[in-house]
C-alpha cells in the first residue's frame, strides 16, 4: 500500500511539557515526510522547552530536564522545521486537536508565520475512532498486527501512525486514497482557528463557539462591541486564534473602505 499523493505529506508527533496549547512547550518533535514518488525523509529533534518538564510528564514520554538541557530551543529550530513541512499536508494521531495547534503556537512565538492555507490535515485518530474506538497502541495491533514498542517516543509513534493510516486505507473500501478526502473524513468540526474557538456556520461564516457570544458571527460581535476584540487579544487565547480574529477584523475594515 502506498499513499496516493499529489504533494508531500508530513506525519509528525510531539512530546511536550503538558497538554495546554497556550502554555506548554515542545520537548521532542519527529517528522516523517512522504513524497509523491514514495521517497521518505525522517528527522527527530529534542527541544529545550525553556521550562521544567513535570515529573509526571517525564514518566509518560521518558524525556527529562537533563535530556534537553543542552538542546536547542524551538526558536532556534523553527526555520528548519518549517522548511521541512511548509510544502506539505500534515498528518498525525490526534493532530487536529493537539499537535497542529501546539506546533502553530510554537511557530508564531518563534516569529514564523504558520498557517494551513493551501494544505490539508489528516487525523488518523479520528479515522480510527470513527471506525474502531481505540488508542494508538491498539490501532497498531489491530491494523498492523504489531506491538507498539517504545510508545510515547515521538519517532515510534510517528512511524506507527503512518503504518496505521496505510492499513486503514487498505481495510476500508469507503476510505479514498486521497489526502483531501482523508482530511475531510478525519475532521470533527470545521474550525477557523486550530483550537476551535472560532467555527464556521452552515453559510461558511466565522462564529464564536464559546461564551456569551456563542454561535454569533465574529464580524458582527467585533463591530457591535469593539472592546471585546481588545479583551480577546489580552486574554489567554492561542496566538493563532488571535491571528484569525485580527484577520477577520481587518477584512471587515477593508470591506467598509471598498
Features:
two-stranded antiparallel sheet; single chain; 7 strands; alpha/beta; 11 helices; 258 residues; globular; Nucleotidyltransferase, domain 5; 2 domains
Question: Would you give an account of this structure?
Answer:
There is one protein chain. Helices cover 45% and strands 14% of the residues. The mean pLDDT is 93. It has 2 domains: 9-186, Nucleotidyltransferase, domain 5, CATH 3.30.420; 198-257, no CATH class. The protein contains 11 helices and 7 strands. It has a 5-stranded mixed sheet, with helices on both faces. The protein has a two-stranded antiparallel sheet with strand order 6-7. It has helices spanning 55-61, 65-68, 74-85, 95-109, 124-131, 136-144, 154-171, 179-186, 218-224, 226-234, 239-257, and strands at 9-16, 26-34, 40-46, 89-92, 121-123, 198-200, 206-208. By secondary structure, the protein is of the alpha/beta class.
Outline the fold blueprint.
Blueprint: E1 9-16, E2 26-34, E3 40-46, H1 55-61, H2 65-68, H3 74-85, E4 89-92, H4 95-109, E5 121-123, H5 124-131, H6 136-144, H7 154-171, H8 179-186, E6 198-200, E7 206-208, H9 218-224, H10 226-234, H11 239-257
Parallel strand pairs: 1-4, 4-5
Antiparallel strand pairs: 1-2, 2-3, 6-7
Helix pairs in contact: 6-7, 9-10, 9-11
Cross-sheet strand order for the largest sheet: 3-2-1-4-5
The figure for the number of domains is 2
Distance between the termini: 51 Å
Largest sheet: 5 strands, mixed
* CATH homologous superfamily classification of the largest domain: Ribonuclease H-like superfamily/Ribonuclease H
Count of individual beta strands? 7
Q: What's the overall geometry? A: globular
Structural class of the secondary elements?
A: alpha/beta
> What is the N-to-C succession of helices and strands?
EEEHHHEHEHHHHEEHHH
Q: How large, in whole angstroms, is the Cα Rg?
A: 19 Å
Number of helices: 11
Q: Average pLDDT across residues?
A: 93
Identify the CATH class of the largest domain.
Alpha Beta
User: What percentage of the residues does DSSP assign to strands (E)?
Assistant: 5-15%
Give the CATH topology of the largest domain: Nucleotidyltransferase, domain 5
Low-confidence stretches: none
Share of helix among residues?
A: 40-55%
What is the CATH architecture term of the largest domain? 2-Layer Sandwich
